[in-house]
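Title: Comparing notes on inverse folding

I've been comparing how different people in this forum approach sequence design from structure. To keep things fair, I'm posting one structure and asking everyone to reply with a full sequence. Here's the target:
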């Protein structure tokens, strides 16, 4: 008999899923404190929570027979995933449960924005009858620009088509084949926002998407454009949005999320053109039921020895395999992340992983999934984990291929090749005993660098003085170069320089290097390393 502890309120239908399982005993201890959970968790196989319970290292350590922690929702911020992984505990969530709810909410906001419903409602409640003031526009025949075409973005696009709208979409992984299948036009970010009458964003909030819509992007938009954000606060630069409202570029805004929440007192709320809600995108009875049913189903399947697609961390491997692959699983994520930040253009259509030497005799799947996690996390952070990486890549239309060989200059090595619309990038590396991870090749250029959390890379003509001038710019910014490698194929030809730096490099320093040395390209890179 498996025992499941539930410490947060759960939908009755979700609970029923657990109670119907005759081999499961369900105990509810709603609102239990950390100490109370620690006192009893040793007798349970699974812990089921929502957002209130904080699943701490102490709880995980006390859970001697704990196999699964289930989160009835999308985020797992209240669960210490690293501690769970170390303890060999699976963490699962329910990312599909709120897809339709959020898409419908976005469309409700768009209709309210088009017809001034919120403003007219307030005017009438204040005793005014102002029909002419609130003339709106039809959606039919308008162009909607969808920025981010994951699960929710695709559902918004589907509903927009039903209303007779033309859909243009930007997503780094949107291939022509998937665009044709969805019946929409794939475009760059700049093309998408410049032709749209309505713009809606549906990306996660990452380093790459923070302030994705800012002054430069507003300058490209049609005068009178209407803008929606029901995804994550921070994707739209709120200060730039205020400037665009004041300049008349944006005629209407619908916001469910803000850079800082609660958003009471936010200056955007003083604008008549802005309608806003307090982060309600996933707040429906159906969504709460769906996530509860999904995660309850996942807990039961995993306790019975089955599988569940939305597992946030990697399950334990057999001891000998884990020992052999662990350093290369970490290397794979680093190489995937590194390559993702170098690939030309804004679309990735294929990811190829090649394994050499001793690691090639083992199962390749954990390393491939880790490489995909590193790659995809730059664009779909909230959707991607080790076990869901293949599924997400497939949904995005990314072709995944693998190959292996026995010959290598090291006992084991691997390389990641990404193919984009406008070019490819290949990054190769290995793990050396006593020296850790090494990046050894970038697009055919030989290097020998230990990857670090913050790095800087340049493409330039091989000529004297480059290294010193780059060092000077970074020195003026107070940034120390921990190590540096220059790679070239011939003297005086094209060369690359890869630097490990002690702290993040601001965009103005990157631009200063570009300007001062007439570089072909300069890229600041952040890697998933502590």
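Reply #1:
Here's my take.
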């Amino acid at each position: 008999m498996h025992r499941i502890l539930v410490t947060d309120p759960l939908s009755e239908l979700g609970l029923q899923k657990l109670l119907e399982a005759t081999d499961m005993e369900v105990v509810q201890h709603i609102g239990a404190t950390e100490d109370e959970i620690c006192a009893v968790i040793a007798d349970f196989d699974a812990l089921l929570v929502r957002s209130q319970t904080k699943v701490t290292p102490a709880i995980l350590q006390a859970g001697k027979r704990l196999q699964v922690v289930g989160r009835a929702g999308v985020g797992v911020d209240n669960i210490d995933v690293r501690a769970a992984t170390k303890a060999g505990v699976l963490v699962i969530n329910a990312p599909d449960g709120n897809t339709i709810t959020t898409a419908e909410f976005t469309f409700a906001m768009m209709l309210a924005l088009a017809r001034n419903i919120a403003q007219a409602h307030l005017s009438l409640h204040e005793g005014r009858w102002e029909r002419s003031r609130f003339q709106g526009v039809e959606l039919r025949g308008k162009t909607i620009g969808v920025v981010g075409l994951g699960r929710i973005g695709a559902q918004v696009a589907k509903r927009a088509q039903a209303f007779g709208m033309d859909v243009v979409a930007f997503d780094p992984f949107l291939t022509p084949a998937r665009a044709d299948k969805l019946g929409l036009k794939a475009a760059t970010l700049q093309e998408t926002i410049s032709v749209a009458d309505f713009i809606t964003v549906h990306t996660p909030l990452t380093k790459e998407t923070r302030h994705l819509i800012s002054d430069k992007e507003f300058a490209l938009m049609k005068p009178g454009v209407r803008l929606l954000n029901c995804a994550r606060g921070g994707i739209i630069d709120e200060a730039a949005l205020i400037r665009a409202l004041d300049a008349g570029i944006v005629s209407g805004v619908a916001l469910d999320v803000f850079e800082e929440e609660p958003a009471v007192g936010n200056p955007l709320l003083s604008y008549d053109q802005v309608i806003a809600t307090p982060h309600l995108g996933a707040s429906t009875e159906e969504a709460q039921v769906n996530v509860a049913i999904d995660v309850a189903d996942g807990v039961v399947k995993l306790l019975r020895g089955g599988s569940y697609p939305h597992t946030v961390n990697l399950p334990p491997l057999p001891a000998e395999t884990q020992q052999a692959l662990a350093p290369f699983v970490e290397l794979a994520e680093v190489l995937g992340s590194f390559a993702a930040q170098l690939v030309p253009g804004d679309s990735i259509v294929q990811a190829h992983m090649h394994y050499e030497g001793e690691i090639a005799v083992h199962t390749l799947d954990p390393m491939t999934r880790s490489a995909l996690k590193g790659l995809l996390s730059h664009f779909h952070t909230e959707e991607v984990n080790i076990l869901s990486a293949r599924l997400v890549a497939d949904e995005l239309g990314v072709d995944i291929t693998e190959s292996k060989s026995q010959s290598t200059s090291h006992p084991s090595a691997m390389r990641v090749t990404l193919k984009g619309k406008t070019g490819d990038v290949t990054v190769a590396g290995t793990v050396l005993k006593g020296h850790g991870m090494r990046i050894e090749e970038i697009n055919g250029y030989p290097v020998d660098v230990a990857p670090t959390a913050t790095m800087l890379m340049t493409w330039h003509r091989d000529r004297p003085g480059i290294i010193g001038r780059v060092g000077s710019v970074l020195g003026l910014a107070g940034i120390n170069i921990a190590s540096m490698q220059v790679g070239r194929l011939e003297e005086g030809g094209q060369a690359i320089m890869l630097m490990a730096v002690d702290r993040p490099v601001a965009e103005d320093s990157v631009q200063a290097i570009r300007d001062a040395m007439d570089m072909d390209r300069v890229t600041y890179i952040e890697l998933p390393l502590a």
